[in-house]
Structure formats: structure tokens, C-alpha cells
Amino acid sequence: MKKKNMHIKKEIIPFVNRELSWLDFNERVLQEAEDETVPLLERLRFLGIFSNNLDEFFRVRVATTKRLTNLPLKEQRLLDTDPKELLKKINTKTIALQNRFEKDYQTIIKKLNNEGINIITHEELLPEHIDFVEEYYKEKVRPALVPIMLSKTNMPNLNGSSIYFAIKLTASKTKFDYAIIEIPSMILSRFLVLPTVNNQKYVMLLDDIIRYKLHSIFDIFNYKKIEAYTIKVTLDAELDLDDDISEGVIDKLSKSLKSRKTAQPVRLIYDKNIAPDLLVFILDKIKPSLNDSVIAAGVYHNFKDFIKFPDVGNDKLSYRKLPPVDHPQLKNKASIIHEIAKNDILLNYPYQSFNHIIHLLREAAIDPKVTSIKINLYRVAKNSKIIHALISAAKNGKKVTVIVELRARFDEEANIYWAEKLQDEGVKVVFGIPGLKVHSKLILISRKEGNKTVRYGHVGTGNFHEGTATVYSDVSLLTKNTIITNEINKVLRLFKNTYERPSFRHLMVSPFNARRKLITLLDNEIKNAKHGHDAYAIIKLNNLVDNILIKKLYQASKAGVKIQLIIRGTCSVVPGVKNVSENIEIISIVDRFLEHARILVFCNNGNELYYISSADWMSRNLDRRIEVGCPIYDKKLQQTIMDMLTIQLKDNAKSRLVNIKKNNSYKETGKVEKNRSQIELYNYFKEQSDKG
């Protein structure tokens, strides 16, 4: 019998490429710099954030994509996207954004001029400034400069974090030399505020101070013309740790950090006015491949420095200060531990003060009833009060254990320093679990109360970093609920007994049960929708790219589950596709604070389930990291979370629609009053604090 040809139609699941979606997010950051309702100095700082984001994107994501082009063609065909085609799309999008960036910078400069703030070049110095600049150059700048003469055999390795002057030194029509100077913005401020003249304020970039004195640097020669053009190389920043278990973890990481300084280039940005022969020389020395981005740009690079642009001018040029308020239950209270004992507490940064966490650790350090403190650290501040509180606890005889994640990207050197500092002070330091990056945000304080040990726990969405806690929006749960603290203890025991495979009934812990738990929660909504019950999910994350969970969201949408997503960054979900994602809506909020909290709410047939988590919905967070999500059982705290999400979902000032058009359009407002959620949230928590 002749078999019939069976043509099975393959289901096409819509996904947005992760890298291209990230560029869409950074475009939203650029929109803040373009937004005329944003104060001028803040617009300048958003340009800095955009630039810093793009640097990291190239150092990590583009570098990874570039590596994929080196795979055999057979293996490349197994990928979702052709890496070479993807690099072309990235380059096209990046150049378009860069052009908008340059245009916006010039616009902001002109508007600042109108406000009496002048960012001037070396050619625009007033006579009143010359002595001031000369003295600053002599005392601060010249000692930090290291000019290097270039030749066919001499080209230094360029630091990916720095910017350089590529210099052409012309002696005659046929004789010229090349040199390079690193602009020392790592040790000096990029900006010099000059004396005020006739009520006009002046700021000069370090670059232009060097340009002003360029001839004096090479005055032992007799060059007729000296030209300086800014260049910046972006290097592959991935750490390739080997698996040689005979090496100590710190030694391995230190070696990898050293190799980072000679990593492969993935992008070269140069002043578009550069002398053609000098550019050819630089390209020949750096040797970028065809897959690298070589981008002609403006005069200034490393705009990340503009994040710290000096506060000059009047108050209207910057955001109004929003000082963090005290949590109403902790306001003017001597003991935070006693307050946690009464009921669970939810802290919300940056609206409420991160000092509550510092005070908690300081209290635990001197409380005679506290016997031990355990904490895991991913990123900490430069002069960390958290670290000092832990050292104080150790000196007071507490048993202090700190799990330090050495592989926190770009903070590795700082974490090595703090790990060694803690060890020197008698703190027990543990370096996580091989193959699993530790990204959870846990504290466990054990206290002797009568004849028993009582544990006080912290589960959060953000790092123990008092600096970022003023600009990142995060949440922290403080609890003595034994069903939570016992499971926190289970997580922390993992770092002592790595062979254990614990079970968790309440916490969602990657890589053990988090993925399974999330699927179960969505399956429950699907079941309820099919039975005609109310079914919905509100999901707030930084990034959503995990294929398995995206397919589950599509399945839920098709079943009739209403899904509202608040995704700050990368999102591979395509909403509004007929018969696939019609019940999915996505917004992204970009404003003065960085949305960082992960919050989940599931309808559960009217008996809502609430969670906070350290994990985004990415395969790395669910399968290759220690991440912890925690249920919120307290009804008052559940109401606070729902209030927060409701305020954000109503945002029509800083909320963009994430949709199939990928145009980052703002949410339609019509004649409805503007609701800027971050300001509304600040007012919400301030009102609570004032009443408390």
C-alpha cells in the first residue's frame, strides 16, 4: 500500500530576539534623554546611562554573538538566529541610535547655554579661565599623562574601560609620527567646573584640557601640527574560567581578570574627523574582524562619565530630591528585631530607607542574644556599611558566615577585595557552588530566646548595596515566620553541604524547584480559565526570555488567562498575536529610578498568591544560578504589593508599550490625567510614613 505524504505544519512560536529586544530597551533610555519634560542635567545623565548600557552590551552580548560566528556552519544552523546576520542587525540599530544620541547631545548643549551653563572646548577658553586651567593641568593632569610613541612594532594593549587620544604629529608634508595618550578619567574627574564669569557658568571636559596643552606634551620635538582624535575600543569581557580544581577560586578569577585586559576587541568607536591614515594605522594594530563594529562618532566618547556630570545651575535643571522615608513600623524604633518579631515587614526601595537593613545588621552585631549571622553577597558598595557591620559582628563574638559571589560581572575585583578583608577579620567566607552563580539576596540571623533558637530572615530582589538602593526599585521581606526562615536556612546550608538536594515547599529556589513551581502556577491559572473561573497573572520582571516559560504564557493566553507583564528590559514575548497571545499586555517603565524588583501575582481562583524573587525569567536564572523567590503570606503586605502594581499598570507618563511593532510608543493617555508611577509610589510610601 502506497503511503500518503504527510505534511505536518510546524507551529511557529513568535519570539523577539534577545539582543534586538535589549537594544529596544536601551532606546527607551535614550527616549528619556530626548524627553523635553525631563530636566536638562538629567537628560545629560540619561545619555551617560545609555552609553554605559551600550558598552556593557557590546562587552558581553555582542562578544558572545561574535564567538558564535566561529562555530562550524553545521552547529550555527542549530541556532535560532544566524549570528552573522544578527551582528549586522545590531550594527544597523546601534548606528541609528548613535546618530540620535549625537543629535540629542547637541540639542542639550544648546539648551544648557540658554540656561547660562556652557560646556566649552579648549578653543573657547575665556581669558579669565586661562590661569585656572594652566594650574589645574600642571598640578593634576600632566602627572597623570603617559604619552606613547607608536610604531610598526609598538602599540600598547588598550583598556576597554578607557578612552584615548590617537595623535598625528606632523613634521613636514612627508614626515609624521603617531602617538597615543590615555585620558586619565579613571583617576581624575572628567569635568572641571571653571570660575563663573558675568553670571555664566562654565564646564570643561578633561579631554579639552589635554587638547589645550597638547603641544607642550611634545615640545621636545619640532612638530608643525599636532592633531588629537578620541578613540575607544570595547573588549570581550566574558570570563573564561577553566575547571582546574587544583586552583583556588580567587586565584582563578584573578587570572581571568588579568586576561580581560588583553581580550579581543568587539567594537571600535572613533572621532569621525580622524585623519584617514591615522585610522588605517589604528585599525591595522587593533585588527578588528569583519564581525566587529567600527563606528564613526562624535568628538567625545565614554559618555558614561556624564552620569556624574556636576550639579551646576538652578534646581529646575535636576530632578526634585526624593529622600527615602522611614518604614512606618520602624520609624523611631530602637530595635528592628523586636518589630520583625511582631509581624512581617516589606521594605520598598528607593522610596523607603535601605538604612533599615544596615541598622538591622548593626543591631545583630551587638545584641548579646544573637549567636550567628549568615548572608550572601553579590554586589556591595565601595565603602560598604554592610561589610563593616558584619566585621563588627565577628569582633563581638558572633559566628558570621558570608557567601561571596566572586563572579558578579564587572564587580569581581571588588568582591575579591572584600572576601579577603572579611577573612582577615575572622569572618567565615564561602565562595558559592561550582557551576552555580549565587544571585539570591538572603540574610539569616539566629537569636537565643529562652530555651530555643529563633531565626529572623531576609529575602529580597536587590543587592545589599546602599548606593544602588537609592536608585534601584527593589523590595525586601523581613520575617521570623518559621516556614520561611527554616527554608532560608536550607538554602544557606547548601554552601556547606553541596551534595544535598533539598526540597522546598514554600520558597522558589533555582535550580531546584523554581521552574517547576512557575509552570505549576501558570497551569493552575490555565485550569481555572478552562473551568470558567477568573484567571490572571501580573508579572513584573527585568527580563523575560526563557523559551519554556514564554510558551507556557502563550498557552495560558490561548486558554483565556489575562496576563499583564511589566518588563523593564529584554522581552522575547510578542503580545497581541491572534490565537497565540491576544490576552497578553506588556508595558515597560523607564524613569528616574531603575525598575529592578521581580514581583508575581497569580489569581488562584480569587485567593491570590503573591511572590517576590531575585530571579528573572531567563534560563541562566532558573537553571544555572542560586535564586530565591518567596511567598508573601501577610495580607497587609499583599495589599501593599497590589497597590504598587496597580499604580504601575496605570502609568501613562513613563510607560511604553512593548508590542509587535517594536516602536516603543508611549501608553495612550487621551485626556486622562498623567500618572507617573514612580512619583505616585513615592507619595504613597511617604504618606504611610507620615501617618506612622
What's a quick, concise take on this entry?
This protein is of the alpha/beta class.
Structural description of this entry:
The N and C termini lie far apart (83 Å). The protein folds into three domains: 18-317, Polyphosphate kinase middle domain (polyphosphate kinase like, 2-Layer Sandwich), CATH 3.30.1840; 336-493, Endonuclease, Chain A; 508-691, Endonuclease, Chain A, CATH 3.30.870.10. The strands form four sheets. Strands 14, 18, 19, 20, 21, 23, 24, 25 and 26 form a nine-stranded mixed sheet that branches. Strands 10, 11, 12, 13, 15, 16, 17 and 22 form an eight-stranded mixed sheet that branches. Strands 2-4-3-7-8-9 form a six-stranded mixed sheet, with helices on both faces. Mean pLDDT is 90; it is low at 239-247. Helix 1 packs parallel to helix 4 (83-114) and helix 15 (514-530) runs parallel beside helix 16. It is α/β, with parallel strands linked by helices and 692 residues long. It has 19 helices and 26 strands. The longest helix has 32 residues, at 83-114.
CATH arch. level architecture of the largest domain = 2-Layer Sandwich
Helical element count? 19
CATH superfamily of the largest domain: Polyphosphate kinase middle domain
Mean of the pLDDT scores?
90
- CATH class call of the largest domain: Alpha Beta
Write down the Rg.
27 Å
Proportion of strand residues: 15-25%
Which structural class is indicated by helix and strand composition? alpha/beta
Mass-distribution shape: globular
CATH domain fold name of the largest domain:
polyphosphate kinase like
